Amino acid sequence: MLRRASSWVWSGASLLLVLPGCLVSFNDYPLGDPQASPVSSVGSGAGGSASVQSKATTMGGRATGGASAAGGAAMTDSLPNPRLVDDFEDDDAAILERQGRSGAWYAANDGRGQQTPPNGASLLPSLLEPPRAGSAHGVHTFGGPFSTWGALIGTSFASSGNIAAAYDLRPYQGLRLWVRSGATSPTAAKRVRVNILTPATTQGGSCTICDDPFGVDVPLTAQWAQVEVPFSSLKQVGYGRPILTTPDLEHAMGVQFVFAINVSFDLWIDDIELY
Known about the structure:
Layout: E1 7-11, E2 14-18, E3 84-86, E4 106-109, E5 115-116, E6 126-132, E7 135-143, E8 151-156, E9 158-160, E10 163-165, E11 174-181, E12 191-197, E13 214-219, E14 225-230, E15 254-259, E16 265-274
Antiparallel strand pairs: 1-2, 2-10, 3-16, 4-8, 5-7, 6-7, 7-16, 8-15, 9-10, 11-14, 11-16, 12-13, 12-15
């Protein structure tokens, strides 16, 4: 089912995504069964379903990375780990302003279930109990089940006010993050879909059947696992038109973590960075 809660507007030569009340467009996505062990990287199967390499990671400290140009930022960015999108160690919903990035975390759902934080609310950091190595805070959402299209959390990569602007992800290979599930219910989601929003797959862009973004399903376990999501692994689910071969990483609008209908969820995320 389609939900249009966002709209695109032209500003000069740029296509911008307007997020009224921080709501977004979204469709149902298939969720698969998890792997038993923590994951080290995520590949792509049909429709962007995740396959997991056998190598497992252990719970460790935060990853570090070197500088890279993006969004017009200089290669000589002097901030610690300029590739870090958010470590959630502050007390606000904003992502870290590095290499031209800016945005804020939000929650959204179809209104036919329960989610914390509620629909349209900002997503503030939560205390990790116990801490994960050197990290004391992460981002947390829980709730469900939903019956119309589901629920999600997300952020833009670049924005001004409630306008999400295009951000160039081409200098990077993918996203790296720590993730786990706190859910114990038999109906709990075993995967979360990670979507990268682009104009070509979003209402108001060049698509004729929209809201089929490029993404991949990431398995969830009860233990913290560091996951790498290569941009080369992203695929559309397959109902959008036209079906594209590769995402438009030059004009990435943001990232979403999406749960489909008829599942409960309890998602923790920490230390998101580009690599």
